[in-house]
Design brief:
With 220 residues, the protein is mainly alpha-helical. It is 69% helix and 0% strand. The longest helix is centred in the first third of the chain and has 35 residues, at 2-36. Residues 184-220 are annotated as: Disordered.
């Protein structure tokens, strides 16, 4: 009788485990795709198309960082960081590489202040950001890579490619906006600011020193 009971319990436990695994198999992929969006596809590509390996990595990120709660920024903090980013944009006109490096440091600092792993642990910080800001985290990845590599080969093969630096900085701006926007109106205001900057205008309150025209000469 004892043996029979043990066998029955083992069968029940095994059956429950199989059902759980099947449920994860049915829902894990779609859930992860919805949560990570473009980051899901990038992770699959990095694993050479191995979906299961990519999903294991993404699931591990959620397990490690899904419970992270971002610390809200005070209005004065948001304004200070916004001013620093504006200074980065202004600096880009004369010193693109230095501006990109400063943007990389500023993103790492703001993320750390919001409660993410500090910038000294870039990979861990990036993984945590990907869980909560999946749509824009690749901008941080790109600007960090450019800042780390220093010189980027331009289209003519000479020196730094200003257009690549510009693109990296523009992409990083989206994550920066996410990180300093702890309210609702700030994000809407910056949406109008982006529209103004793209046309060489202003946001109505703070002039933009760059329009990022493609005719901008490349850095020598």
């Amino acid at each position: 009788m004892i043996i029979a009971v043990i066998v029955i319990v083992a069968v029940v436990v095994l059956g429950a485990a199989l059902l759980t695994l099947r449920a994860r198999g049915r829902h894990g992929g779609p859930d992860l795709k919805r949560r990570f969006g473009p980051e899901y596809e990038r992770t699959v590509a990095r694993h050479d198309g191995d979906t299961q390996a990519a999903e294991r990595e993404l699931a591990e990120r959620v397990e490690r960082h899904g419970g992270l709660r971002e610390r809200p920024l005070e209005p004065a903090e948001r304004e200070r960081y916004a001013d620093r980013w504006t200074a980065v944009q202004e600096r880009f006109v004369d010193a693109p590489r230095e501006a990109v490096a400063e943007a990389d440091r500023l993103l790492a600092e703001v993320a750390g202040v919001r409660g993410y792993p500090d910038g000294g642990r870039y990979e861990e910080q990036l993984a945590a950001l990907s869980v909560h800001h999946a749509d824009h985290v690749d901008g941080y990845r790109r600007v960090h890579r450019v800042a780390r590599d220093g010189a980027v080969t331009g289209a003519d093969g000479s020196g730094a490619g200003t257009e690549e630096l510009r693109t990296a900085l523009v992409d990083a701006r989206a994550l920066f906006d996410d990180l300093i926007d702890t309210g609702g109106t700030a994000g809407r205001d910056r949406t109008h600011a982006h529209a103004g900057a793209a046309s060489g205008g202003t946001d109505g309150t703070r002039p933009h020193a760059w329009s990022f025209s493609k005719s901008h000469p490349k850095e020598s």
